[in-house]
């Protein structure tokens, strides 16, 4: 069991255990990855040490949720801001004798507390995010907290209150294409009464419901002519046919899933232990009991064609809940600096 490294304020204690093949998998697929925990308010970056072991770097970002990798930079949604993190290293430079990327928070757009879930960047470089509090898709605005782009037809007004729990965003050809909602509801908080089977996948370009009957769906991702999403209340990764809305189960995962990244034909998924009431009344609870499994917190890597779990990264200690995950191709060992870390004050780079 190894301990996480933090540069900044002392975080909650986090221990991790990894599958024996994870270092080789990261090397073979030329990637590292990052994930967030809103429970502890942290960004974690996972890569390889020079000796081939696993490196885990963590930094504090209040209520860290949505995470996106785009053209060599990271975007992260926190409690009331959306951050842009830039790699400050030039080609060939190494940070702290072992990191080939050092991500520094260079910009923060203040949104206020919108309960921002997933976010992405479109072809024009515009940040798009699931504005869960206002039940819409939105983008940043230089003057205002956000600019609304789209909301479901059954949501009657643009107002706070989280009416349908719009939480997941899928991009296609550089533009938003699909969202997941937990229920068709137009009353604040009413979606909670329909967690078991009220979830929907909506094509925002047409407004059509592509598929429904999901239990707390999250994280839709376009893969060819299918959409892969997390049917979290059931515990299954699911594939939906775009042409007709038919679906099939890909794999069962022993925890509550909230984040999904597709990389080289594999699904990288975050999963969490239950907090009070999270699993109550959901099929996931019964399925775990039927299989004799205990839910756990961590990241799993699933081979999409076979549905087999090939590698895993398991967290123990004070952390029990994760949110989003992002693959970071061609980065071997990433680290970051937090917005309130001491190191950030003394870390100055410039162009002559």
TrEMBL record:
InterPro entries: CHP03032. Residues 22-336 form the Conserved hypothetical protein CHP03032 domain. SUPFAM superfamilies: YWTD domain. This is TIGR03032 family protein.
């Amino acid at each position: 069991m190894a301990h996480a490294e933090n540069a900044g304020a002392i975080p909650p204690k986090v221990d991790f255990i990894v599958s024996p093949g994870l270092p080789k998998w990261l090397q073979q697929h030329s990637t590292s990855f990052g994930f967030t925990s809103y429970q502890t308010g942290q960004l974690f970056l996972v890569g390889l040490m020079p000796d081939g072991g696993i490196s885990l770097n963590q930094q504090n970002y209040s209520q860290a949720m949505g995470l996106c990798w785009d053209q060599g930079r990271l975007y992260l949604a926190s409690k009331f801001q959306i951050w842009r993190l830039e790699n400050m290293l030039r080609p060939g430079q190494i940070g702290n004798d072992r990191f080939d990327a050092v991500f520094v928070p260079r910009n923060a757009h203040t949104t206020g507390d919108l309960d921002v879930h997933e976010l992405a960047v479109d072809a024009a470089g515009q940040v798009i995010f699931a504005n869960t509090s206002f039940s819409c898709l939105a983008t940043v605005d230089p003057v205002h907290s956000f600019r609304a782009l789209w909301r479901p037809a059954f949501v009657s007004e643009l107002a706070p209150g989280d009416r349908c729990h719009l939480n997941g965003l899928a991009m296609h050809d550089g533009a938003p294409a699909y969202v997941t909602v937990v229920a068709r509801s137009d009353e604040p908080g009413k979606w909670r009464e329909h967690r078991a089977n009220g979830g929907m996948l909506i094509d925002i370009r047409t407004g059509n419901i592509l598929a429904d009957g999901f239990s707390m769906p999250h994280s839709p991702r376009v893969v060819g002519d299918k959409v892969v999403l997390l049917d979290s209340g059931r515990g299954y990764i699911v594939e939906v046919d775009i042409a007709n809305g038919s679906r099939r189960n890909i794999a069962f995962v022993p925890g509550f899933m909230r984040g999904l990244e597709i990389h080289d034909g594999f699904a990288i998924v975050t999963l969490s232990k239950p907090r009070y009431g999270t699993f109550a009344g959901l099929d996931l609870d019964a399925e775990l009991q039927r299989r004799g499994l205990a839910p756990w917190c961590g990241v799993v890597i699933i081979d999409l064609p076979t549905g087999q779990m090939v590698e895993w990264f398991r967290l123990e200690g004070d952390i029990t809940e994760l949110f989003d995950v992002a693959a970071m191709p061609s980065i071997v060992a990433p680290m970051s600096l937090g917005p309130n870390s001491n190191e950030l004050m003394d870390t100055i780079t410039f162009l002559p």
